[in-house]
Design brief:
Elements (H helix, E strand, L loop, with lengths): L1 E5 L2 E5 L7 H8 L6 E5 L2 E3 L14 E6 L5
Parallel strand pairs: 1-5
Antiparallel strand pairs: 1-2, 3-4, 3-5
Length: 69
């Protein structure tokens, strides 16, 4: 079993880890257009979500942007 730490909580993946940040967002049903992402303290540009490789033990912070007034 592999683990990613997402927003301070361990998320376990039984079979295999998502290959990229974009894959993780798809699994989590998060729209990439509404999120700012950081992996191990480094902000990832939206254009790089599909190339940002994930590996076990990484710390990921996802901040969702919400419009309002």
């Amino acid at each position: 079993m592999t683990v990613l730490r997402i927003n301070g909580e361990d998320k376990h993946f039984e079979n295999s880890l998502p290959a990229t940040l974009a894959d993780l967002l798809d699994i989590m049903k998060v729209d990439a257009a509404t999120v700012v992402a950081e992996i191990d303290g480094q902000i990832i540009k939206k254009n790089d979500f599909s190339s940002a490789k994930l590996s076990a033990g990484q710390k990921i912070e996802l901040i969702r942007l919400v419009g309002g007034g």
